[in-house]
């Protein structure tokens, strides 16, 4: 399956996860993001929403280290990292009711700077999963440009996706996006709205909104797509879902304005 244009994210929805994932699919989303991290996601509820409609839907989930989990672990925490990855992945397939996922991500390196032995072990296990055909592609989230470069150097199976939080004040993650462009890695951006509330209320954004008759959210997502970012949205509004999926094209001047809004 090719890289999606837009992804519906299912974090922090708890009891509403299945309903909202169904709503997103009904509205027209054909890509769903989740994680085997019960602290912030309900992966099994995503699986319930996908029941009977898996075909044609890009499904992405993640392996999360112990520090990102609560007490509801999807693996034996005393097992080697590679075994934890396999156990978590098997649990994900069961939750999602499928025999494969389209993308499997490491939910961030185990440390803030550089990569540890645990990260190498986790990546090797993910490479084994990818080679087995149970994951079409593998990747990483919450990663710095330096960590991504290091991962590329050591990887036998190259990362196909990177998923990061995007801050306008940091050029919309310009450093990591540059590495992705150079290496042919598809970049997914999350928190495009919530991480940039103040910057997106600037008068120049209001001017673009009024001139082209689109919402603030539509401007940001259109900008993201035009600069090569696959946006994630986690909206709970059916109206916003429909609006987000509308095809909106910005002119180069407006793209430049939004790209530099945080400077």
Overall mean pLDDT stands at 97
Cα shape: globular
Strand order of the largest sheet: 1-2-3-4-5-6-7-8
Runs in which pLDDT lies below 50 for 5 or more consecutive residues are none
Number of helices: 10
Which class do the helix and strand fractions yield?
Answer: alpha/beta
CATH topology: TIM Barrel
Could you describe the largest sheet, including whether it forms a barrel? 8 strands, parallel, barrel
* Total of domains: 1
Q: What would CATH call the class?
A: Alpha Beta
Q: Please give the oligomerization state of what you see.
A: single chain
Radius of gyration: 18 Å
**CATH homologous superfamily annotation:** NADP-dependent oxidoreductase domain
Number of strands: 8
| Level-2 CATH architecture | Alpha-Beta Barrel
Name the helix and strand elements from N-terminus to C-terminus, one letter apiece: EHEHEHEHEHEHEHHEHH
Distance between the termini: 37 Å
Helix-residue proportion: 40-55%
Strand content: 15-25%
Question: What's the short version?
Answer:
By secondary structure, the protein is of the alpha/beta class. The protein contains 10 helices and 8 strands. The radius of gyration is 18 Å and the shape is globular.
